[in-house]
Amino acid sequence: MSMQSARRPGSPAGPGQGLDPAGRAGYTDHPPRMGFFTDTSVCIGCKACEVACKEWNAVPEDGLELTGMSYDNTGSLNASTWRHVAFIEQIGRPGDRLAGDLLAGDLLAGALPSGGPEPDGSRWLMSSDVCKHCTEAACLDVCPTGALMRTEFGTVVVQDDICNGCGYCVPACPFGVIARRESDGGAHKCTLCYDRIGDGLTPACAKACPTESIQFGPLEELRERADQRVSDLQKAGVAGAQLYLQDSADGIGGAGAFFLLLDEPEVYGLPPDPVVTTRDLPRMWRHVAAAAAALVVGGLAASLGGASRSRS
Hints:
Shape: elongated
Structural class: alpha+beta
Number of domains: 2
Radius of gyration: 23 Å
CATH class of the largest domain: Alpha Beta
CATH architecture of the largest domain: 2-Layer Sandwich
Mean pLDDT: 84
Number of strands: 12
């Protein structure tokens, strides 16, 4: 199976161009693209996925103190937290309208999934966040060593032995997923358990999830399942239910890890319209080249003008 580690910096990138990212990376014969569908409507916030991820991947602990803003004790994704369960506490008053024009008490008890409003108008939204394994991955574009590579499953992984810790990938990620670990200086993030799926196993986080909020499988099958799920929720009255990052026409060409949300992406700390940050690199380099050419022409003109005046 032939492969190529990554598209090089400055090469064209745009939404919808990479529907087969493994094929574009050079794999001539590869399995279906694999990914995650995270259904936040059934997430109970148990953090079993966080623990399983750390145990399988030997990810060091990153602090056991509460943030002071939530019952969450990890805060966000980082180099030592590859799965992060966000707790979004929406505290309201009786009669308050919530996302999707739901009025507390409008629906019968049990009609709403996990995260539905309590009688006082309050609700907790819980979501297990992870690397999106973007179709158009800016971290791949900017990596100077090829440490970030596209796998035959369409996922994006960091090769620890090649990473030089430059950190270029950190600001390139539109989701703030990848980060450098102070203890070793390298960049780290979710690998979608590349070692496990290569042996036909389910990633540790999905295996540990007790409610099947995290679902793993061929991406096309997950998208079909997600479409049906969001339709069922909307028919049940959950008007705010929506899919996030499943659309191949979005600014990152769709993601290998997408989500069913019960509110707007911003509520979960996610960008509403993410765009691959290297999208404008070709245009920027053209402007730089034009400016450099103009500078050279101006310098030559000044030199020739000076020489002619000195002769006269």
